[in-house]
Design brief:
The protein has a single domain, classed as Porin (Beta Barrel), CATH 2.40.160. The protein contains 4 helices and 21 strands. The protein has helices spanning 8-14, 23-44, 146-154, 166-170; strands at 49-65, 73-77, 84-94, 97-106, 126-133, 136-144, 177-185, 192-199, 213-222, 225-234, 237-238, 241-242, 247-257, 261-271, 279-290, 293-304, 316-328, 333-344, 352-354, 357-359, 369-378.
Amino acid sequence: MIGHEDGEAAHASRRGIRKPRVRRAALTMIAGAAGLLWHAGVIAQAPGNNVTLYGVMDLGVFAATPGPSSMTAVQVMSGQALSRWGVRGREDLGGGLSAFFTAEAQVYADEGIGQAPGGGMTFQRRSFVGLDGRFGSVKLGRDYTPGFFSILVTDLFAWANVGNASAFAVAGGTTARASNAIFYDSPTWGGFRVMTMYGTGERYEAPRDAGSVYHLAGFWTGGGLSVTGFYGRYRRQIGTTADSNGTAEYGAGFRYDAGKWKLVGGFAQTDPGGDGNAVRWWNVGAEVKVGVGSLSLQYAKMRIESGAAYAQGVAGKAGTIGAMYSYPMSKRTNLYVVGGVVNNDQGGRFGLAVTSTMISPSGRGENPRTIGIGIRHFY
């Protein structure tokens, strides 16, 4: 189904409860992976087919604290990117038409388990099949929303690392993923393209439209500058009815890449309707080359109003600072040092998003923080 805690934010919020090591779950993951690899090997041999196994493994050692009233914990967790693996494929159908699919699963690499209850493996990150051609692409299944891709451009840390947009999503912000959905990506015209989608709540009983969502986003790129904006509505269920007008989700921003340095800025807002109900996020960030590596710094401001459906009647705001130095060891492997802190006001209770982990404050006005060092490898 669809919800605000889909996507990286959902994994972050669930990560607060450590999952036990379960032998059955591990065996399930191994068996599932072996089956997929066998099928991928057979399919890849067919003429015109292209099936690829891909993924990321990322782990670091972190010192983290929810606030001054709590002790500091040493944690092993993903720091720069969420560990995951997947299978994707494409078949040339001729005449410029192709079929494609993706099935992608999350891995909690520090424990060797998946995101399903009991630690089993699922493909809840991405799972879709579709067609593309000169008309663009159409796909069915579960994937990121256009709003997610729009924020991906304007969030310097791209929904990962320390101090990324996941904290906004957990607080009731932009819907990051949608299930039971149809997605359309347009061709590019003069540097401009469009993404849109509609997801259904798949309900037989009233309210039938509860859980439905649609998004529309535009992207323009030229001369190192990328500009984007999005708008969408999500129908939450309220008691036995659905939100009559839907919760509005929108935002805009830019990214400028000059080669040796980058600059980003953006804002996003979720508004259930009425006065004093908004959840807001804005950010600015910069990255510069330092030697062979790069140094990144981002500041973000979050605010939740007292009437917001997610605020439990208490308004709050916070500023977040995240920093990272990344040192490449090859094209697919790098070392990194990251750190960040959230400064909540008296009513604020925002957590510090560290890729797949949310360091939640021990109380309102508390300021979670962390620092860590790790390694990321693509395959």
